[in-house]
Structures are given as C-alpha cells and as structure tokens.
Amino acid sequence: MPNLPISQILTFDTELSLASSSLTGSPVLIGTITNEPVILMIKNQTSQAVFISDTNSSTKGTTMAVGEEIVLDCRANNGKADNMGFPINTSFYATGTSGTGSIKISILYAK
Question: What is the pTM of this model?
C-alpha cells in the first residue's frame, strides 16, 4: 500500500516532464502527482529561467534559474505532523518563454 507516513521504504514515482518549447508565457501544466512525496526534486534543465507553481498562477511559486535544482525533503521538515508535503493530485505548472531542454519533477514516496 503506497503513501504510508511511517514506511521506511522509498520508491520512485513516474517523472513529470515538460519540454521548454511548450512554454508560452502563461502557466503550462507540467503534470499531476499521483503519490504523496517524501522527497520532491524539481529540475530546470532548460535554456530559460522558469517560474514553478502548484497553482495555475504566475505569482505564487518560485522562479528557477537556468540549471537550478530544488530538493525538498518533506519528511525531515514535518514539525508535529507525520509528513509534510504536497497532497496526491497536486498539479505543477511552469511559466516562461520557449527554449530548449525540459523541466522535470521527480518524486520519491513511501511504499
């Protein structure tokens, strides 16, 4: 059974990917996660700065420079909760101008 907050076994989920050539200046869907991440990795492997958001927005999120990578350890920073992370079915969007390369989101989840 996946997504157990007390499990110590991790597995990779399907990587989300969006070609930079698909960017239009408005938010474009990268993909939707199907498991609650323990580790979330966002990689801007494009030739352009991009804005990443978990809402269809160009103001609530973070701008990533060319080649920037963000690793979020959701379990380590949980406070009083078992887990802290993005819920299942969270969609991620990218805003930027067309370029080369891809934006990638990788997830490790508790199996």
Answer: 0.90
